Automatic annotation (TrEMBL):
Signal peptide location: none
Organism of origin: Pelagibacterium flavum
CDD domains, per the entry: ASKHA_NBD_FtsA (cd24048)
Subunit architecture: Self-interacts. Interacts with FtsZ.
Protein name from the UniProt record: Cell division protein FtsA
Length: 437
């Protein structure tokens, strides 16, 4: 239910004011922490980019205790997070207390809900928008799942859809469609538990596909319809944007590391050597000289006196391509089953570390029958050179998030009573009396 949602507690960054933000990307193969100062931006920029991120602290390291976005070993995850956050803290010269963290675990999924409230002919006020968003709670998701994002994707006045901002308009009935992104509660609680062991609070949880889309899509793409595919180490996430709003999100527990494991198993090499082969020589499509190009590989467990094996690039491609086709087919089938293939228009954007694979855009173009391009972080300056690639799209999107989170539904916080028999002052008075009698 939305009343038990884990929706953002993050305060939107104020126009014309600077703000500090710390983001933490907990992946299956890498963990990255960025501390940035959001400074008001001058001149034109992408929609929602009211501030420019000045990076003052950057930490990066291998992941541990995390598999497919799920915490599998609390102690190892804690140590890996501590190391990366400590690196960023030393670079920035500050101590971090809370972070914006991404979520890929917990069978990430999305649904669209609609609700309406009566206006009785008066002007739409912010309180009316709050009422209709709260009304969505009556048609929310199952109890074992918690909401990460509740994003209004369109308002309607008296049944007339396409209203972007109804405030100040008059009508009898105000309706709203809300895209609700949710995940299993226990998976998110384990992420929160790992951070609490590092003495860090969760300032906001952010769905990985939403972050990737914010980082890599331009305004026209988001308006016309586009799907953003983030191919990470052990997960692949999909987000669909239409009319400038996120309308769909999904995640698959398969990614680039599975390609590496396929190479290691079939060519009998170590995982480290398999990753090197994939990065340097890997391709999804066969080239003209692949049969004659020979690569030397050292068999797993071989000593320095043994001679290496020789394989052709064609053999390496035959190992890589089936796994990539499996990922693309799974994306296509899920989107067709939910009707999102039509809503996404004619365009796909590929990002994430595994999207750097040679020939991937062309293979995706053939299999998905859509225009495909590679996406890199946009609208975020000041990132270190090694963080400007597609592997860091999620981090860049989380830096954009404080600038756009004001459009979300946020669970109302209970007001804290200061007076009365059970208020704050009464309870403090009782404590003082009991302590000094």
């Amino acid at each position: 239910m939305m009343t038990s949602a884990m929706t953002a507690r993050l305060k939107p960054v104020q126009p014309g004011r600077s703000s500090l933000v710390t983001v933490l990307d907990i992946g299956s193969t890498k963990i990255c922490c960025v501390i940035a100062r959001l400074v008001p931006r001058e001149g034109r920029a992408l929609r929602g980019r009211t501030h420019m991120a000045e990076i003052i602290g950057f930490g990066y390291g291998p992941s541990a205790g995390v598999k497919s976005g799920v915490v599998t070993d609390l102690d190892k995850a804690e140590q890996a997070i501590r190391s990366v956050v400590g690196m960023a803290e030393r670079a920035a010269g500050i101590t971090v207390q809370s972070v914006v963290v991404n979520v890929t675990a917990g069978r990430l999924g999305s649904e669209t809900f609609s609700a309406s409230v009566s206006l009785d002919g008066h002007e739409v006020e912010p309180s009316d928008i709050s009422r209709v968003l709260i009304a969505v709670n009556d048609r929310s998701v199952r109890d074992e799942r918690s909401i990460i994002h509740a994003l209004p994707i369109g308002y309607a006045l008296d049944g007339q859809k396409g209203v972007r901002d109804p405030r100040g308009m008059v009508g009898e009935t105000l309706g709203v469609d809300v895209a609700v992104i949710s995940a299993e509660t226990l998976a998110m609680r384990n992420i929160e538990l790992a951070l609490n062991k590092c003495h860090l609070e969760v300032e906001a949880l952010m769905a990985t596909p939403y972050a990737s889309g914010l980082a890599t899509l331009v305004d026209d793409e988001a308006d016309l319809g586009v799907a953003c595919v983030d191919m990470g180490g052990a997960t692949t996430t999909v987000s669909v944007f239409n009319e400038g709003h996120l309308v769909y999100a999904d995640a698959l527990a398969i990614g680039g590391h599975h390609i590496t494991l396929d190479i290691a198993r079939q060519l009998s090499v170590s995982v480290a050597d398999a990753e090197r082969l994939k990065t340097l020589y890997g391709s999804c499509l066969q080239g003209q000289t692949d049969e004659t190009d020979v690569i030397t590989v050292m068999p797993i467990g071989a000593n320095s006196h043994e001679s290496p094996n020789s394989i052709s690039r064609e053999m390496l491609t035959r190992v890589i391509r089936p796994r990539v086709e499996e990922i693309l087919e799974a994306i296509r089938d899920r989107m067709q089953a939910t009707g999102m293939m039509d809503i996404s228009g004619r365009r796909f954007v590929l990002t994430g570390g595994a999207s750097d694979l040679t020939g991937l855009p062309e293979l995706a173009r053939r299999m998905l029958a859509r225009n495909v391009r590679n996406g890199r972080p946009l609208g975020v300056s000041g990132l270190p050179d090694r963080a400007k690639g597609p592997a860091f799209a999620t981090v860049a999107g989380m830096l954009v998030y404080p600038q756009v989170c004001g459009t979300e539904y946020v669970q109302p916080r209970p007001t804290r009573k200061l007076t009365g028999s059970d208020g704050y002052f009464a309870r403090v008075g009782s404590w003082l009396k009991s302590g000094f009698v």
